Amino acid sequence: MNSDKRNSVYRYVLVGFILLLSIIIFTEMRYYLGGFMAAIAMYSILRSLMIKLVEQHKLSRGLSASIIVLGSVIFFLLPLTGIGFLVADTISGININPEQIKIYIEEFVSEVERKAGIEIFTPENLSFIPEAGKSFMQIMASSLSSMVMNSVIAIFVLYFMLVSYNNLEVVIMETLPFSEENKTILRQETRAIILSNTIGIPVVALSQAALAYVGYLFLGVNNPLVYAILVAFTTVIPVVGTSLVWVPVGLSAILTGDILRGILLLAYGLAIIGGSDAVIRFVLQKKLANIHPLITFFGVLTGLAMFGFWGIIFGPLLLSLLLLLFNMYRHDYIKESNVNPRIASK
């Protein structure tokens, strides 16, 4: 066996061991993967600040990283965790009676069936409600504990990523088996996608939730905070989005005889809650990356199952990276293809 062939064999054996150990470690650490992903997201956003503190203001790496991490905890992680506890406390404080909910839904559906002349549900179809209520509360408790644990992990990982910011990027760029052009595209696209999801999704969700809360509070809707939270969660659903919340709220008021308030609720939902979505997204797309809504939707669904709360950001990122790598392959190796490798365009 000549020297080149032996080196090639050793290389593949080494790569095999690296992949094997990576799979073993990933399998054991998958429950904390959200914390690592959160650290990557914050690192992408805060890296330029770290460089400025170290190279322009001549602060030590340890002090610079400590200042940035402390600021991240105060202005980002603590408010986020507080919102999580607020949501859990609000929902847990609501007296949920599955049987009463079932009766209410039956009355609501019967009224719709009577006026529309069609059969929608039968009592047997509503037997899922008690179990759905229990499952929802279990998911909320599990997600909250996971968010707290992964936030703590994110703090420690972020600190060490910031301290070794230049070495980390050199290692990643050296290891990737891409051309220099594709490495540059990958770095730029990854940052753009992270910024778009980290800033865009929460801004849209919180803005629409705030508008829903103010409107429902003014129009006398019971538990307006709960409906505002539901509005925030439905912002990632394409096409229908927040209408899954404000349409039933308005129709419920109309069917119970409060026609004027129901019309006002529907008008407010359509014009303000729904209309603000297009305006906010348009403004953000001018500043950030323009990610296709379907990537966001399916990415969030996948990400929540994989990473918990942080999946809202990293589910769309993984799906975007998959499409980006696929486009790179088409661009480099399929001669007839005119595809643009980039998928996040302003």
Q: Largest sheet at a glance?
A: none
Instruction: Determine Rg (CA atoms, Å).
Output: 25 Å
pLDDT averaged residue by residue: 75
Number of DSSP strand runs:
0
Query: What is the element string, with H for helices and E for strands?
Result: HHHHHHHHHHHH
Structural class: mainly alpha
Strand content: under 5%
Shape call: elongated
Give the terminus-to-terminus CA distance: 53 Å
Key terms:
mainly alpha, 80% helix, 346 residues, 12 helices
Structure, described:
The protein has 2 domains: 32-175, no CATH class; 177-346. 80% of the residues lie in helices and 0% in strands. The protein contains 12 helices and no strands. It has helices at 3-29, 33-56, 61-92, 98-116, 129-163, 165-175, 180-218, 224-234, 243-255, 259-287, 293-307, 311-333. The model is unreliable at 132-137 (pLDDT under 50). It comes from Fermentimonas caenicola.
